[in-house]
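User: My collaborator sent over this chain with a note saying "see what the structure looks like." That's all I know about it. Can you take a look?
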Amino acid sequence: MRLFVAVNLPDLIRTGIDQALQPLRQSVDSLGARIKWTAPEQYHMTMKFLGDCSDEQVPKIKETLQQASASSHPFAVTLAELGCFPARGKPTILWLAVKEGAETITRLAGDLDRTLEPLGFVKDPRPFSAHVTVGRVQWVSNGVKLRQALEATATLTLGPFNAESLELMQSVLSQAGPRYTLLKASSFPAVTGGESMDPRQRHSGMTT
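Assistant: Without extra context I'll predict from the sequence alone. Here is the result:
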Protein backbone atom coordinates (compact mmCIF):
# COMPACT_ATOMS: atom_id res chain seq x y z
CA MET A 1 0.00 0.00 0.00
CA ARG A 2 1.10 3.55 -0.79
CA LEU A 3 1.43 5.62 2.40
CA PHE A 4 2.32 9.11 3.57
CA VAL A 5 2.20 11.11 6.81
CA ALA A 6 0.27 14.38 6.78
CA VAL A 7 -1.31 17.16 8.78
CA ASN A 8 -4.84 17.47 7.41
CA LEU A 9 -6.74 20.76 7.21
CA PRO A 10 -10.10 21.76 8.72
CA ASP A 11 -13.00 21.84 6.26
CA LEU A 12 -13.36 25.60 6.71
CA ILE A 13 -9.77 26.15 5.57
CA ARG A 14 -10.19 23.75 2.65
CA THR A 15 -13.24 25.70 1.49
CA GLY A 16 -11.33 28.96 1.85
CA ILE A 17 -8.45 27.70 -0.30
CA ASP A 18 -10.86 26.55 -3.00
CA GLN A 19 -12.56 29.96 -3.09
CA ALA A 20 -9.27 31.89 -3.02
CA LEU A 21 -7.97 29.95 -6.05
CA GLN A 22 -10.84 30.93 -8.35
CA PRO A 23 -9.04 34.02 -9.81
CA LEU A 24 -5.92 31.93 -10.44
CA ARG A 25 -7.90 29.21 -12.20
CA GLN A 26 -9.38 31.83 -14.53
CA SER A 27 -5.93 33.32 -15.26
CA VAL A 28 -4.46 29.89 -15.97
CA ASP A 29 -7.30 29.01 -18.33
CA SER A 30 -6.51 32.09 -20.39
CA LEU A 31 -2.90 30.87 -20.77
CA GLY A 32 -4.03 27.56 -22.19
CA ALA A 33 -2.19 25.66 -19.46
CA ARG A 34 -3.41 22.29 -18.26
CA ILE A 35 -3.46 22.04 -14.47
CA LYS A 36 -4.63 19.06 -12.43
CA TRP A 37 -6.13 20.95 -9.49
CA THR A 38 -6.17 19.24 -6.11
CA ALA A 39 -9.68 18.40 -4.92
CA PRO A 40 -10.56 20.52 -1.85
CA GLU A 41 -11.18 17.47 0.33
CA GLN A 42 -7.59 16.36 -0.37
CA TYR A 43 -5.78 19.52 0.73
CA HIS A 44 -3.16 18.60 3.33
CA MET A 45 0.42 19.27 4.40
CA THR A 46 2.66 16.30 3.57
CA MET A 47 5.10 15.57 6.38
CA LYS A 48 6.71 12.43 4.98
CA PHE A 49 6.08 10.37 1.83
CA LEU A 50 6.64 6.70 2.62
CA GLY A 51 5.84 5.11 -0.75
CA ASP A 52 4.85 1.47 -1.12
CA CYS A 53 4.72 -0.33 2.23
CA SER A 54 3.77 -3.85 3.25
CA ASP A 55 0.99 -4.69 5.69
CA GLU A 56 3.66 -5.93 8.11
CA GLN A 57 5.28 -2.48 8.24
CA VAL A 58 2.12 -0.61 9.22
CA PRO A 59 2.08 -1.37 12.99
CA LYS A 60 5.68 -0.14 13.39
CA ILE A 61 4.93 2.98 11.34
CA LYS A 62 1.97 3.73 13.62
CA GLU A 63 4.25 3.39 16.66
CA THR A 64 6.79 5.86 15.25
CA LEU A 65 3.96 8.25 14.44
CA GLN A 66 2.99 8.20 18.12
CA GLN A 67 6.60 8.87 19.14
CA ALA A 68 6.95 11.83 16.78
CA SER A 69 3.63 13.41 17.77
CA ALA A 70 4.54 13.18 21.47
CA SER A 71 7.27 15.80 20.89
CA SER A 72 4.78 18.59 20.14
CA HIS A 73 1.57 20.28 21.29
CA PRO A 74 -1.34 21.57 19.18
CA PHE A 75 -0.11 24.67 17.35
CA ALA A 76 -1.44 27.47 15.17
CA VAL A 77 -0.95 27.38 11.39
CA THR A 78 -1.52 30.17 8.88
CA LEU A 79 -1.34 29.68 5.10
CA ALA A 80 -0.31 32.51 2.79
CA GLU A 81 1.41 33.17 -0.56
CA LEU A 82 1.16 31.07 -3.70
CA GLY A 83 4.29 29.65 -5.31
CA CYS A 84 5.58 26.77 -7.42
CA PHE A 85 8.25 24.10 -7.75
CA PRO A 86 10.86 24.14 -9.16
CA ALA A 87 12.26 27.58 -8.37
CA ARG A 88 13.32 28.06 -12.02
CA GLY A 89 12.11 26.79 -15.36
CA LYS A 90 8.63 25.53 -16.13
CA PRO A 91 6.51 25.03 -12.98
CA THR A 92 5.38 21.51 -12.17
CA ILE A 93 3.78 21.91 -8.72
CA LEU A 94 1.63 24.81 -7.49
CA TRP A 95 1.52 25.33 -3.74
CA LEU A 96 0.30 27.48 -0.89
CA ALA A 97 3.00 28.27 1.66
CA VAL A 98 2.82 27.73 5.39
CA LYS A 99 3.72 30.93 7.22
CA GLU A 100 2.86 30.74 10.92
CA GLY A 101 3.66 27.25 12.18
CA ALA A 102 6.32 26.52 9.53
CA GLU A 103 9.11 26.19 12.10
CA THR A 104 7.14 23.68 14.19
CA ILE A 105 6.13 21.67 11.11
CA THR A 106 9.75 21.56 9.91
CA ARG A 107 10.90 20.32 13.33
CA LEU A 108 8.18 17.65 13.32
CA ALA A 109 9.28 16.52 9.85
CA GLY A 110 12.80 16.11 11.21
CA ASP A 111 11.49 14.09 14.16
CA LEU A 112 9.61 11.84 11.73
CA ASP A 113 12.75 11.31 9.64
CA ARG A 114 14.72 10.27 12.71
CA THR A 115 12.07 7.88 14.04
CA LEU A 116 11.34 6.30 10.64
CA GLU A 117 14.95 5.87 9.50
CA PRO A 118 15.51 2.70 11.58
CA LEU A 119 12.55 1.18 9.72
CA GLY A 120 14.34 1.66 6.41
CA PHE A 121 12.77 4.93 5.27
CA VAL A 122 15.55 7.11 3.84
CA LYS A 123 15.65 10.80 4.70
CA ASP A 124 14.84 13.05 1.75
CA PRO A 125 18.06 14.95 0.89
CA ARG A 126 16.07 18.00 -0.20
CA PRO A 127 15.33 20.70 2.39
CA PHE A 128 11.85 20.32 3.85
CA SER A 129 9.37 22.97 2.67
CA ALA A 130 6.05 23.22 4.52
CA HIS A 131 3.25 23.73 1.97
CA VAL A 132 -0.13 22.61 0.65
CA THR A 133 -0.11 21.33 -2.94
CA VAL A 134 -2.99 22.95 -4.83
CA GLY A 135 -2.25 21.83 -8.39
CA ARG A 136 0.05 19.85 -10.69
CA VAL A 137 1.03 21.29 -14.07
CA GLN A 138 0.37 18.79 -16.85
CA TRP A 139 1.32 21.15 -19.66
CA VAL A 140 2.19 24.82 -20.09
CA SER A 141 3.71 26.57 -23.10
CA ASN A 142 5.02 29.58 -21.20
CA GLY A 143 6.28 29.00 -17.69
CA VAL A 144 7.13 32.67 -17.20
CA LYS A 145 3.52 33.75 -17.75
CA LEU A 146 2.30 31.08 -15.36
CA ARG A 147 4.66 32.39 -12.68
CA GLN A 148 3.39 35.91 -13.37
CA ALA A 149 -0.18 34.69 -12.93
CA LEU A 150 0.78 33.28 -9.54
CA GLU A 151 2.38 36.56 -8.50
CA ALA A 152 -0.62 38.55 -9.71
CA THR A 153 -3.09 36.54 -7.66
CA ALA A 154 -4.41 38.66 -4.79
CA THR A 155 -2.61 38.27 -1.50
CA LEU A 156 -4.47 35.84 0.71
CA THR A 157 -4.25 34.61 4.27
CA LEU A 158 -6.02 31.50 5.54
CA GLY A 159 -6.15 30.82 9.24
CA PRO A 160 -4.96 30.57 11.82
CA PHE A 161 -6.22 27.07 12.47
CA ASN A 162 -5.14 24.51 15.02
CA ALA A 163 -2.96 21.56 13.94
CA GLU A 164 -3.85 18.80 16.39
CA SER A 165 -2.40 15.54 15.06
CA LEU A 166 -0.23 13.66 12.61
CA GLU A 167 -2.15 11.37 10.26
CA LEU A 168 -1.02 8.21 8.51
CA MET A 169 -2.74 8.22 5.12
CA GLN A 170 -3.15 5.62 2.40
CA SER A 171 -3.22 6.82 -1.21
CA VAL A 172 -4.91 4.68 -3.87
CA LEU A 173 -4.20 5.85 -7.40
CA SER A 174 -6.81 5.67 -10.15
CA GLN A 175 -7.67 7.33 -13.47
CA ALA A 176 -10.02 9.64 -11.58
CA GLY A 177 -7.16 10.73 -9.31
CA PRO A 178 -5.85 9.62 -5.92
CA ARG A 179 -8.17 8.60 -3.10
CA TYR A 180 -6.95 9.15 0.45
CA THR A 181 -7.92 7.05 3.46
CA LEU A 182 -7.01 7.82 7.06
CA LEU A 183 -5.31 4.84 8.75
CA LYS A 184 -4.31 6.46 12.04
CA ALA A 185 -4.46 9.88 13.68
CA SER A 186 -1.86 10.46 16.39
CA SER A 187 -2.86 13.49 18.47
CA PHE A 188 -0.41 15.99 19.88
CA PRO A 189 -0.50 16.03 23.71
CA ALA A 190 -2.69 18.79 25.11
CA VAL A 191 -1.09 21.78 26.81
CA THR A 192 -1.05 21.16 30.56
CA GLY A 193 0.00 22.80 33.82
CA GLY A 194 1.49 26.26 33.53
CA GLU A 195 1.84 26.11 29.75
CA SER A 196 -0.24 28.62 27.85
CA MET A 197 -1.91 28.29 24.48
CA ASP A 198 -2.26 31.10 22.00
CA PRO A 199 -5.99 31.99 22.13
CA ARG A 200 -6.15 31.72 18.35
CA GLN A 201 -5.35 28.01 18.70
CA ARG A 202 -8.72 27.34 20.31
CA HIS A 203 -10.57 27.64 17.03
CA SER A 204 -10.16 27.52 13.27
CA GLY A 205 -10.64 30.67 11.26
CA MET A 206 -10.27 32.13 7.80
CA THR A 207 -9.43 35.55 6.42
CA THR A 208 -8.80 36.67 2.87
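A starting point for your reply to your collaborator: The longest strand covers residues 75-85.
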